[in-house]
Amino acid sequence: MSRRIHAAVFSPTGSSKRMALLLAEGMAKALQAGVELHDWTLPAGRERPVRLAGGDVLVFGFPVYGGRVPEICLPCLQALEGAGRQAVVLAVYGNRHYDDALLEAGDMLAAQGFTVAAAGAVIAEHCIAPAVAAGRPDASDLELLAAFAASAAQAAAEGRNVAGRLPGVRPYKTLPPSAPARPSTLASCTRCGACAQVCPLGIVGRDDPSLVGGGCLRCCACVKFCPQGAKAFLDERQEAIRTWLEAVCRDRREPEFFL
Ligand SMILES: Cc1cc2nc3c(=O)[nH]c(=O)nc-3n(C[C@H](O)[C@H](O)[C@H](O)COP(=O)(O)O)c2cc1C
Ligand code: SF4
Ligand code: SF4
Question: What is the CA radius of gyration of the chain?
């Protein structure tokens, strides 16, 4: 069987999936390989095992949450069997910072038996504050990502290991205490059910989308994909975070790559 680039992604609002797939496709082109997507965003996708063969390469694409790898990805990562294969990490973040996320992802993949050949941190619209990094990734970001794909393919082919050079600090950044969150549903809701379909936790009621269960990630998928603009976080905490992000993330950050 020919070599495959496995793009494993968690991506509630779609940016990480888009960018990880572009990376995987670029690598596949350079290595004359195929691409297989493992979408860990929805509960059913997180149940499906990832089967790697021979010289297959893993691309792990995820959004940075609180400077870390989203906790929801951990069981999927822990089920992977690297067996000395190569992996490439792509952290996607909303122009604040990625803090320890690359280091953490690299450590996790190494613990599963992968060699991390290359890693990147790239910028996309901040899902909580869409005015931050609006329009990212742009043409310049995508050009840099395409060049990185070619370099990452070469690094994987040569069996390089970038693990010792990933930025970040151990122990990793402490996550803020979890506060209960629940998006509101406005009167313009037509009960189309789109928000229930995209929720990574399946906590939005399918019959009554205004009923939202506990454990919300604040991932904003329901907000982004509601065709009526009828889902929104109206709580003071989310409003304060949005205002803070808009104030402190004004300066454009550029993609960073580690090879
Ligand atoms: C709970 C949460 C925490 C986040 N933390 C960070 C962060 O620490 N730094 C940052 O720059 N962006 C942060 N973001 C923004 C996301 O990383 C960014 O919007 C990303 O593009 C979302 O990826 P997706 O489109 O694949 O869902 C956070 C978003 C959420 C929902
Ligand atoms: S996606 Fe929007 S309109 Fe559709 S059910 Fe959800 S809140 Fe209502
Ligand atoms: S209810 Fe929470 S976890 Fe579900 S899609 Fe909306 S923001 Fe994400």
Answer: 18
**For residue 219, what are its two tokens?**
């991932």
This prediction's pTM: 0.98
22 conformational bin, left if phi > 0, alpha if psi -120 to 50, beta if neither: alpha
Q: Is the pLDDT of residue 1 over 80?
A: no
Same domain, 190 and 148: no
Q: Which amino acid residue places its CA nearest to atom 3 of ligand 1?
A: 65
Alpha carbon distances (Å) from 238 to 106, 156, 182, 244? 30, 41, 10, 10
**Domain region containing 191:** 184-234
Q: Judge if the beta carbon of residue 190 lies within 6 A of ligand 2.
A: yes
Mean of the pLDDT values across residues 32-52?
97
Q: Please, which pLDDT band fits residue 249 given cuts at 50, 70 and 90?
A: very high
For the CA of 221, the closest atom of ligand 3 is 5
What average pLDDT does the segment 5-32 reach?
98
Domain total in the chain: 2
CB-CB contact of 226 with 241 (8 Å): no
What CATH number corresponds to the domain at position 88?
3.40.50.360
Q: Using a 6 Å cutoff on CB, does residue 97 contact ligand 1?
A: yes
